[in-house]
Amino acid sequence: MFESISKAMMIGLGVADLAADRVQQTIKDLVERGDVTADQGKELYSDIMARMEERGRTENERVRKHMHEAMRDMGIPDRKQMATIEARIKALDKKLEQILDRLPELDDAESKSVV
Question: How do the domains of the chain map onto residue ranges?
Fold first, then answer.
């Protein structure tokens, strides 16, 4: 699953990089033809890139939400649930150590009462 997500993200980054290059080239062509000034081209590029970044953040959040839902549906605990589980395991481990530390005392007391 992680490999699929990783590949999808790499593809997304590649597409975003190609799109940024294409936007830059298109604006450069517009400036060379005189359709826009260099300053207008820079502003246009900044605006387009800001929109692309915002869409990227929105898409990233959407993918994250779907991933959480898929993991929940598969019964995979999230970070908060894992922290709770780890805390319970530590508490149980501590209780078990306390019980095991008392076992020799119980063994000695039982052997004396049997004799």
Answer: 1-76, 77-115
